[in-house]
Design brief:
- By secondary structure, the chain is mainly α.
- It has 20 helices and no strands.
- Helix 13 runs parallel beside helix 15.
Length: about 425
């Protein structure tokens, strides 16, 4: 949906998002003392949380400069970059200066400079950061860091963006969880978190938005909290000036997975404990980052910067989507609220467009499975209809969640084989019920 904060239906979502953002930010402020290089130097487990915190503080300061909350984060960053252990970290890890140097770069963008500046610039002048082989989304991290310091290079973010899997029209059935993270990162850093208009290859950007939307709904349905949050960040970054993803399922996931102390786990079912604190910190931070970006996108003003691409094929894709939606709605049992929740549509819709792709009566679930299997095997099922179909099928079988058919409890569609495995297990479960 296109979320408009002025509509009656969107106001509760905006209020819920703001409340969750406040909760996440409060927890992050409380945990700041743990985000440190510390006495253990580079081996300290608080280094990555420190770097993550600097990114959050930087983006929040850019999007909400009038907020006073981020000053507490920057005060902590000033203290940390002056530690001897932090300078040692920069010297020993020159090939990752874009990562370890981010707290310093965040302060530079706020008009400050510190003792770490000489070391950071010396490492950059050595050329080491650009010599290290990196995949496109990690190279975009480096370029974003250099941009913060006002340093330009010959191969800019637009050239790197053209090499990324995000713009290669991948088959979503073959996109792994790690690749989903990479695509979210690409969208965020290529656009500087929605504040830069990237030069996109000759593609229809609606396909990119559709891809991120499908990956987001898959992450939400499988309880991947941090991945879902990063995909929300990516989706906001590449939208055409309005938030065009359905936020309600994402907010539902946040509400249901939030811990009593105000943090979030990486996975909805992950246990709390000191050993999981770094993962909880990262998950809570990206939740706060996503909600910060959403809040700014729902406020008046030129954010996010509208990303422009080729619009060919939009009418055809919209027609196919309407047909798929109509077929799925007709096939879904009218009394199944889970079907509407998982597929982002209200249950009980019965309108059907001409030439629907799955013209199978809702009661014939075995026939419906066979039809979907055939489309997967023949390579005719697009990423949106396959993922919607698997999620809808899961909602029929288990009103409280998804079909759990794999030995390790995983149930997301990571490949064509796993899609067929899900469908075959569902057939057996239906036969036994």
């Amino acid at each position: 949906m296109n979320t408009d904060p002025t509509t009656d239906t969107s106001r509760p979502l905006v209020a819920a998002a703001s409340a969750l953002e406040d909760a996440a930010t409060t927890w992050l402020c409380r945990e700041l003392p743990k985000c440190t290089v510390g006495a253990a130097g580079p081996a300290s487990g608080g280094v990555k949380p420190l770097v993550d915190t600097s990114l959050f503080a930087l983006v929040r300061a850019r999007l909400h400069p009038a907020d006073g909350v981020q000053e507490e984060f920057f005060r902590h960053l000033r203290q940390e970059v002056e530690r001897p252990g932090y300078r040692d970290l920069l010297v020993r890890n020159g090939d990752f200066v874009n990562f370890y140097g981010l707290p310093y770069a965040a302060l530079v963008t706020m008009g400050e400079d510190g003792s770490a500046g000489r070391l950071v610039r010396a490492v950059i002048r050595s050329g080491v950061p650009m010599w290290t082989e990196r995949p496109p989304h990690r190279r975009l991290d480096v370029l974003f860091f250099l941009c913060l310091l006002g340093i330009s290079v010959d191969s800019g973010p637009d050239e790197v963006l053209s090499l990324s899997s995000l713009v290669s029209d991948p088959n979503v059935l073959l996109v792994t969880e790690q690749e989903s993270y990479a695509m979210a990162h690409t969208a965020m850093y290529a656009t500087e978190f929605g504040q830069r208009r990237a030069v996109w290859p000759d593609i229809d950007l609606s396909d990119v938005r559709d891809l991120l939307d499908v990956l987001l709904r898959r992450a939400v349905a499988t309880g991947r909290v941090d991945l879902a949050a990063e995909l929300v960040c990516g989706a906001v970054s590449v939208c055409d000036g309005r938030v065009a993803v359905d936020l309600a399922p994402f907010l539902d996931l946040l509400e249901s997975s939030r811990r009593e102390d105000g943090s979030w786990p990486r996975y909805a079912e992950e246990r709390s404990g000191p050993e999981n604190w770094p993962r909880s910190h990262h998950a809570t931070l990206v939740v706060a980052l996503a909600l910060t970006m959403v809040r700014r996108a729902l406020e008046p003003g030129p954010y996010p910067v509208g990303q422009l691409g080729r619009a060919d094929g939009r009418a055809h894709r919209d027609r196919v989507r309407r047909e798929v939606d109509a077929a799925l709605s007709r096939a879904a049992p009218a009394a199944s609220p889970a079907a509407g929740r998982l597929c982002g549509r209200a249950p009980g819709r019965t309108e059907a467009g001409p030439g629907a792709l799955w013209d199978v009566p809702g009661a014939d679930r075995h026939g419906w499975i066979a039809a979907l299997e055939e489309r997967v095997l023949r390579g005719e099922a697009g990423r949106r209809e396959v993922c919607d179909g698997v999620l809808l099928l899961a909602s029929w079988q288990d009103e409280d969640g998804l079909i759990r058919c794999c030995d390790d409890g995983e149930h997301h569609v990571g490949s064509t084989a796993s899609a067929l495995h899900v469908l075959n297990a569902a057939r057996h479960q239906l036969s036994a019920s």
